Amino acid sequence: MSTVTEASERSASEGGGVRAVTRAFEVLQCFTAARPVLSLAEIVRESGLPRTTVLRLIDTLVGERMLRHAADGRITVGARLIRLAAFAEAAWAVPDETADRMTRLAQETGETASLYARSGLRRVAVGQSPSPYSLRHVVQVGDEMPLVLGAASTLLVAASGPDAADHVLAALPAAERSAVDVDSFRAAVHDARRDGYAVSHGAREPGNSGVAVIVREGDERRPAVVLGLGGPTARFTEERVPVFLDALTAAAADIRRTGLPAALD
């Protein structure tokens, strides 16, 4: 979660050993809670890696008990991941008081409250409390989103230092960079850094809006963290956005006191 560019990380991973680790993670990331069992063909398709490479990686990961062969011949997660999952859950757990404060924020505003941290070229949801309405913004803890779309992403870049926008743009893969309006992105980050908050409408998906404030600025040691509200654009009116900002500002001040997940310290 440092400010090291993804381009540098990719360059460093070209060495054989580190590249193999990177590819092993690409295989593991094919598995989700909704899809814990996959065929070889599905892993090849999801990872984008050559079939022979996937076969070698699966053999290694099975040997390390990170994966295992299911009874039907497909591949599923292994027992060693239980320990890693338990460790990760403990390290990334939002303190109870912070979780309670986010719940009150969601109830007060009627919108989904999310706590985001920067991770490379992504923002990651590390805490979430859903809107009480059936029509709401849906975010799951652990979800990763691009760092160039939406209020929370813009603010995370703004809170990562004065040159963060340039670093992010330079590190984007060519395909992603070509889809970004560079001037608009730089202007949005500049405004967010000046104001300490960001607002977006339909940036990530049509009909969805977001408002975010800074919880903690990032540095070389710790990533930036922001608190955001997300929901249908119809409810994010000119009259309601200032109300949301006041509620977010008060909640962010409380969260600085109650604390963040241990992994973010």
Automatic annotation (TrEMBL):
The keyword Cell membrane does not apply. It comes from the Bacteria. Residues 80-261 form the IclR-ED domain. Keywords: DNA-binding, Transcription, Transcription regulation. Residues 18-79 form the HTH iclR-type domain. Gene3D superfamilies: 3.30.450.40, Winged helix-like DNA-binding domain superfamily/Winged helix DNA-binding domain. This is IclR family transcriptional regulator. It comes from Microbacterium galbum.
